[in-house]
Specification:
Order of helices and strands: EEEHH
Number of strands: 3
Low-confidence stretches: 52-59
Helix content: 25-40%
Structural class: alpha+beta
Distance between the termini: 27 Å
Mean pLDDT: 76
Number of helices: 2
Radius of gyration: 17 Å
Length: about 100
């Protein structure tokens, strides 16, 4: 593998993981980040409610984390947007913003 020069050096930001290393295998870049023991946002949303107990209730917002308040949901969105904004200001486009990619 060759060192990757198209990826800018890590930029510290509270809503982004720190890039540990990057390389290029000849076809696509590969990025290395620290292990995220807490998992990703998708798994967090799919887990049961904090503190255990049954989730859901059959309503339009049924599911394990259906009881999340509007405040919490808006806070999650704002944190995501702050991270994306930081990247965009540096002319970086993520191209795959998804809950599975949010740690």
């Amino acid at each position: 593998m060759l060192p990757c020069s198209i990826i800018p050096p890590p930029q510290s930001h509270s809503h982004l993981q720190t890039l540990v290393a990057s390389t290029w295998d000849g076809t696509s870049p590969m990025l290395v980040y620290p292990y995220a023991s807490g998992g990703n946002l998708k798994k967090w949303l799919q887990q049961g409610p904090p503190g255990g107990g049954a989730g859901g209730g059959g309503g339009p917002r049924s599911g394990p984390r259906a009881g999340l308040s509007t405040h919490v949901l808006v806070s999650l969105g704002i944190q995501l947007l702050k991270g994306i904004q930081h990247l965009h200001r540096r002319k970086i486009v993520h191209k795959d913003v998804a809950a599975r990619n949010c740690l």
